């Protein structure tokens, strides 16, 4: 199974690029973040014509997440479902081909003195509880998203420049669920704040950490995974996973030639 994740930063603005990439790459599953549109405004018909089903959790102007899949997503859950009054559309989960897939867009935090920073820490606490209560540690689980945290200095091109800033503070790193910190599914040149993690599948084929000097000074927008064996975890026939950057991954956030999965 080929899975990818992409912070699309407005699905309507990048609809043409999205459809082009789906046609050329043919992923089985694509997690999208920052749709910046409601479910009614999502290009459902165009995505369907491209051969994909879509589970969408949208919001006007901000946030929004989706899971696109060749097989219809089932058992869809929108939000963290914890009873907290939160209108931000930041998480959606669904089962595709026996594999549980989560697409998430974590809060940015803005600045250390902003209420959004505390909201970010609270949101990660809620995410931790969501994972602990809804997903067995041995379950085959894919977490695709923009996590808005660099878990370690190795994930930053210039750690000194970012020292003490949002994305890199001790409180943020401590708030990151252990499951996300421990997986270590980070291929060369793909920072973990915009990454796809595979949990519950052995033999994740990744190179050793290359060091900050090898990190690109651009934001990597997407990363893909090839999952073999139907996504079965240790409880069934064991699958394997390998991660790597998708073609055309580097680029500025504008509608430039290099911006895409």
TrEMBL record:
Coiled-coil regions, chain positions: none
PROSITE patterns reported for this sequence: AP_NUCLEASE_F1_1, AP_NUCLEASE_F1_4
Site feature location: Transition state stabilizer: 148
Family annotation (Pfam families): Exo_endo_phos
Family to which this protein belongs: Belongs to the DNA repair enzymes AP/ExoA family.
GO biological process, one term: DNA repair
Cofactor comment text: Probably binds two magnesium or manganese ions per subunit.
Top-rank taxon, per record: Bacteria
Cofactors (names): Mg(2+); Mn(2+)
Disordered: annotated span: 228-261
Ranges of Gly residues composition bias in the record: 228-238
Organism: Myxococcus stipitatus (strain DSM 14675 / JCM 12634 / Mx s8)
One Gene Ontology MF term: double-stranded DNA 3'-5' DNA exonuclease activity
Annotated binding of Mg(2+), by residue: 7, 34, 146, 148
TM annotation in the entry: none
Keywords: Hydrolase, Magnesium, Manganese, Metal-binding
Endonuclease/exonuclease/phosphatase domain boundaries: 4-166
The name this protein goes by in its record: Exodeoxyribonuclease III
């Amino acid at each position: 199974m080929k899975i990818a994740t992409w912070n699309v930063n407005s699905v309507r603005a990048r609809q043409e690029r999205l459809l082009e990439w789906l046609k050329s790459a043919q992923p089985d599953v694509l997690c999208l973040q920052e749709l910046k549109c409601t479910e009614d405004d999502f290009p459902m018909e165009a995505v369907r014509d491209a051969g994909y089903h879509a589970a969408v959790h949208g919001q006007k102007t901000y946030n929004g997440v989706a899971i696109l899949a060749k097989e219809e997503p089932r058992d869809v859950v929108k939000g963290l479902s914890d009873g907290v009054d939160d209108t931000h559309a930041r998480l959606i989960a669904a089962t595709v081909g026996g594999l549980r897939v989560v697409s998430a867009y974590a809060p940015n935090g803005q600045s250390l003195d902003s209420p959004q920073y505390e909201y970010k820490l609270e949101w990660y606490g809620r995410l931790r509880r969501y994972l602990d209560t809804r997903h067995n540690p041995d379950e085959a689980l894919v977490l695709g998203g923009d996590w808005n945290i660099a878990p370690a200095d190795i994930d930053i091109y210039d750690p000194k420049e970012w020292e003490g800033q949002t994305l890199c503070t001790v409180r943020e790193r401590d708030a990151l669920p252990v499951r996300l910190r421990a997986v270590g599914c980070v291929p060369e040149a793909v920072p973990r704040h915009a990454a796809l993690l595979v949990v519950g599948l052995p033999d994740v084929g990744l190179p050793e950490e290359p060091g900050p000097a090898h990190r690109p000074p651009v934001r990597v927008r997407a990363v893909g995974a090839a999952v073999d064996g139907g996504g079965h975890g240790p409880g069934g026939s064991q699958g394997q996973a390998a991660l790597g950057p998708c073609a055309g991954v580097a680029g500025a956030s504008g509608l430039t030639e290099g911006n895409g999965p």
